[in-house]
Specification:
CATH topology: Heme Oxygenase, Chain A
Helix content: over 70%
Largest sheet: none
Number of domains: 1
Number of strands: 0
Number of helices: 10
Bound molecules: 4-amino-5-hydroxymethyl-2-methylpyrimidine
Strand content: under 5%
Structural class: mainly alpha
């Protein structure tokens, strides 16, 4: 059994919760309020800057050139593929990239990226791959589920979102994330596999909290005038 098959058993219930989440169902049927989407867009842009650092850490910790290439492919795909989606949506709302980058990360966003960067910095390349997995795999899972459920996207303002995350490039990026973790976890003792699994479960829970944070347009409980 592949390690990702074992992981699937631990995260399936959480992930099916994403598909019932109002933010996600709203993307699928196009009814999501645009202000909520803009909140996601801004928070996610600064999230992806931190997420990209993980792949650079992974390349540095890679045990061989082939693994380094895989982390580097993911890094390139995120910076120049996925983040282009965000830049295009921002342009359609007349939001400059410089404004996206000024976003103050919310409490949940900060906790999520700090959790991943902490594990990536103190762990090995397998730990980095474990940190990356839920993000890539769950968005691909959601994108495909929404595309299947909503075959006619012509009048859906979130068509490009669904097509990006269900499409070929992002599916390949996710395939790389899964292969990376399966290869790096191969031969590890159960104690270490359990630690990697814990990272994937925790990041899956953070993903759920990120959807909630966008649904409620949450930032920090107390707003300071910074
Ligand atoms: C919060 C979050 N998780 C996963 C992805 C997919 O990379 C994303 N863009 N944002």
């Amino acid at each position: 059994m592949k390690f990702t098959d074992r992981l699937w058993n631990s995260v399936e219930d959480i992930w099916n919760g994403y598909l019932r989440h109002p933010f996600v169902t709203g993307l699928g049927d196009g009814t999501l309020e645009v202000d909520k989407f803009k909140h996601w867009l801004k928070q996610d842009y600064v999230y992806l800057v931190e997420y990209s650092r993980l792949m650079a850490i992974g390349a540095e910790k890679a045990p061989d050139l082939q693994t380094m290439n895989m982390f580097s492919e993911m890094l390139h795909g995120t910076l120049f593929g996925e983040m282009e989606l965000h830049r295009q949506y921002a342009a359609s709302f007349d939001i400059e990239e410089s404004e996206l980058l000024k976003t103050e990360p919310s409490a949940v966003n900060t906790a999520y990226t700090s959790y991943m960067l902490n594990h990536a910095q103190r762990g090995d390349a397998a730990a980095v791959a474990a940190c990356l997995l839920a993000c890539a795999w769950s968005y691909n899972y959601i994108g495909r589920a929404l595309a299947d459920k909503n075959p006619d996207l012509e009048s859906n303002p979130y068509k490009q979102w669904i097509e990006t995350y269900s499409g070929k490039d992002f599916s390949e990026l996710n395939g790389t994330a899964m292969t990376l973790l399966n290869e790096l976890a191969d031969g590890k003792p159960e104690r270490e596999l359990a630690q990697l699994e814990e990272i994937v479960v925790k990041t899956s829970l953070y993903e759920y909290m990120f959807w909630d944070m966008c649904e409620t347009q949450e930032e920090w409980p107390v707003q300071l005038n910074l």
